[in-house]
Amino acid sequence: MTTVERVQPPPTAVRPKVVARAGLYALLVANAGVVTVFFVQAGFASNALIVLGRLAGLYAALLMAFQLLLVARLPWLDHRIGMDRLTSWHRWVGFGLLWTLLSHAVFITFGYAQSSSMGPVDELVELAETVEGVLRAIVALLLILVVGAVSARWARRHLAYETWHFIHLYTYVAVVLAFTHQVTAGTTFTTSPAATAYWWTLWGVALGAVCLGRLVLPLWRNLRHQLRVSAVVPESDNVVSVYITGRDLDRLPARAGQFFLWRFLTKDRWWQANPFSLSAAPDGRRLRLTAKTAGDGTAALRHLKVGTRVFAEGPYGAFTTLHRTRSETLLIAGGVGITPIRALLEDLHDHVVLIYRVATDQDAVLYDELRELAHAKGAQLHLVTGPATPDKLAPRELARLVPDVAERDVFVCGPPAMTSAVLRTLRDLGVPKPQIHFERFSLAG
Fold first, then answer.
1. Membrane-crossing residues (predicted)?
2. Where does the pLDDT of residue 298 fall: very low under 50, low under 70, confident under 90, or very high at 90 and above?
3. CA geometry: angle at 205 spanning 20 and 315, to 5°?
4. Are residues 257 and 401 in the same domain?
5. Does residue 172 share a domain with residue 141?
6. Could you tell me if residue 137 is inside a domain?
7. Which burial class, exposed, middle or buried, applies to 3 when counting CB atoms under 10 A from its CB (0-12, 13-18, 19+)?
8. Which of 225, 285, 327, 392 is deepest in the core (most CB within 10 A)?
9. pTM
């Protein structure tokens, strides 16, 4: 096996994740301040309920724009924070948005009902019939309520991903309807040219970020690189590696530990995107993914033909050496979670310890490669086999294998239960949080 020497970035005291997260918080707080200033300058309404309703509506609109930024898949944010965490933040901000919108609707309806001496229902009907944009806002709120309902945990467990994703796309319809309501009925941004310019700029940036990250960049990169399947190699009865080549791959900004959303453009699978990590560090000539059969989509990989066109979105993920804080590293993998770990091992040059946790020796995917690579790099490789219980990576066992674990960066990738158990062990052993790096395997595997 041939390895390519790479210049490895030194550990950094300034965590890229902290910088990116602080930037997002500062952006949200600064815009909340600007919105509040414009709201005060526009003057107050006739009663407190209407004032509260309008302010809640403004903050809801700001959260909606922030939501778009979180899922725009902008490389600078994604490579520092990670898609799994950005997606989690998007989910929780979404629930905050839902309650803020409901507060806006309730306060506005009861506020105007109080002023007109009408009942709340009659007042809502009156507003929908007489005020431009209110009916669109009601439709937008109903759509967001539906999306919020199907995003609850109990609903997600009973819905296929494709069904949930299709329903979730209606959020963009709600965004357009809500924005047209804001610019027609929102007095805060219709009475001041500066406020109007600010609001259009804010939403232009938010929607532009989504268009750039979700559409323009993937299309441009795929047109540039013209990816195709170059080989399909069965690794075992239920694991297969797919090699992909293309033009100018040395200019593709992919790093070991990252993943792509892969679409193989066959007549029966072109519509389906699957997230697979790179199982080898990018070398500028080809990419490799390795997948375990877990359904029809992954089973079909074994039957791909050489030359099949590939549409790849990415690279995504913050599970890279960019986030190192120490010179020595511990890599911990479980099952097919070895794929990004194997790529990281290839990319690391300081003293590395790799622990590979599997049920049986036969489950150790790419183990021959790992032994050869570990020998070439002078890394320690531990294959830990056996049932899930008792925990063979409990604090005492892990400290025996790696006595200086608290002095290392630790990268963890595996099934959710194993990852959670290892994270608890690392905390028990006193490994500082900045030295622990992981991505949820359910997203990035």
1. 24-44, 50-71, 92-113, 133-155, 167-185, 197-217
2. confident
3. 50
4. no
5. yes
6. yes
7. middle
8. 225
9. 0.86
Please report whether residue 273 resides in a domain: yes
CATH number of the domain that residue 413 is part of: 3.40.50.80
**Of how many residues is the chain composed?**
445
As a whole number of angstroms, the distance between CA 423 and CA 407 comes to 16
When divided into structural domains, the chain yields a total of: 3
| Token pair recorded at residue 114 | 């109080």
Q: State whether 152 and 199 are in the same domain.
A: yes
CATH of the domain at 111: 1.20.120
pLDDT of residue 10: 56
CB contact at 8 A, 177 and 125 = no
182's enclosing H/E stretch is: helix 170-185
CA 419 to the chain's CA centroid: 18
Tell whether 328 and 308 lie within a shared domain: no
Both structure tokens of 421 = 């158990």
Cα separation of 168 and 396, whole Å?
45
Give me the DSSP letters along 221-270: HHHHH--EEEEEEEEETTEEEEEEE-SSGGGS---TT-EEEEEE--TTTT
Relative orientation angle of helices 170-185 and 161-168, to the nearest 10 degrees: 20
Segments forming the whole domain that contains residue 377: 324-444
Span 279-298, mean pLDDT?
87
**Interval 42-62: pLDDT, tens:** 887 778 999 999 999 999 999
Q: Is residue 2 part of a domain?
A: no
Task: Examine the domain organization and report whether 212 and 151 are in the same domain.
Answer: yes
Q: Report the b/e string of 120-130 with b at 16+ CB within 10 A.
A: eeebbebbeee
Is the Cβ–Cβ distance between 358 and 334 less than 8 Å?
yes
pLDDT at 160 > cutoff 80 = no
The answer to whether residues 232 and 251 belong to one domain is: yes
Q: Are 351 and 276 in a shared domain?
A: no
Encode pLDDT of 317-355 as tens digits. 999 999 999 999 999 999 889 999 999 999 998 889 999
For 325, what's the count of Cα atoms within 13 Å in the CB-facing half-sphere?
A: 19
Peptide bond into 218 cis (omega under 30): no
Q: How far is the C-alpha of 163 from the C-alpha of 305, rounded, in Å?
A: 29
What does the alpha-carbon distance between residue 263 and residue 233 come to, in Å, rounded to a whole number? 18
